[in-house]
Hints:
Helix content: 25-40%
Largest sheet: 9 strands, mixed
Radius of gyration: 22 Å
Strand order of the largest sheet: 17-16-15-14-8-13-12-9-18
Order of helices and strands: EHEEHEHEHEHEHEHEEEEEEEEEHHE
Number of helices: 9
Distance between the termini: 45 Å
Shape: globular
Amino acid sequence: MSKDAKIHRVGIVMNGVTGRMGTNQHLLRSISAIIKQGGVKVGPAEFIMPDPLLVGRNAVKLHRLTQISEAKKYTTDLKAALADPDYSIYFDAQGTLLRSAAVKQAAAAGKHIYCEKPTAVTTAAALDLYHVCKKAGVKHGVVQDKLWLPGLVKLRRLIDSGFFGKILSVRGEFGYWVFEGHTVPAQRPSWNYRKEEGGGLIIDMLCHWRYVIDNLFGAVGAVSCLAATHIPERVDENGKPYPCTADDSAYATFELENGVICHFNSSWVTRVRRDDLLTVQVDGTKGSAVAGLRKCWTQHYGNTPRPVWNPDADQPINFYQGWSEVPDQEEYDNAFKIQWELFLKHVVLGTPFPWTLLEGAKGVQLAELGLQSSKKRAWVKVPKLK
């Protein structure tokens, strides 16, 4: 970086980064990585440089984070951090139930808001955050990271190029086996399985599926969802058994306004035998594609085999053959980091950032309606949020 470069220093209060996602994706792989690369380049000799202040309840954990990242300042006093005029952005990666009060406090202090999803556990609460930030006149955004996964970026380009012809259906498979903790330690926090603490797979994953579907395939018009708690008891971080009060699996079908049917299975109690932890198959009149987190495979109409059903003989067709991998046509950065850079540009330069708290509320709405559908055992319409 030239000594004559113009630097836009942006102070960021980062709350809740001692958790798994906050540490790995937001601090280490996003903000710390941006600092290491010399900031976000926005001109020939112009850069945005984040200046993070870590906030949390555990000073020991916060201090450790300053030793392994580019963030060197921390505090356990959120009120004082929000009162500091050197910090213009508030980021929240706390547990969902803690988010609302902190975001409102930050908006009242005039901070721009960027936060993890879900933004709340009810549509009303999520919309309230949007209106609070809008009234305060601050910029705001919500994490919607999967839009920048390489596999979905490739899928988006196939859609834009007309590869599929008319899209007929979308099928998503997500999940893996999360150990219960009795013999093998669990790889997810125990609050994920407690409804009273904001846990549950539906509130977690249907927020993701909402923005993925809306941005790639069309607006969701109705949902039919079945929630299940397949594992009734798990072991927490202290080795104590606890009852699971939240769903660990969700089987959801979405009818889009354009007629496309999407079905997503989401589960923390499934063993993976597919290409990735997340796979999305899109079937169209002219071709199909299967995207994982990073890779994407296609099969055109002209390469589609013509199988004949015969359960009395071994299947002669290897169905994995006849698919072509979409090549990497660029360098793919971390999805969280890409959106962070876009939000920083939005705050400093006023560039567009459509992934607002209103979009976050749409995700919460779909999750809430999914839970209603499961309880009623019925289809539920998804009205437009005003």
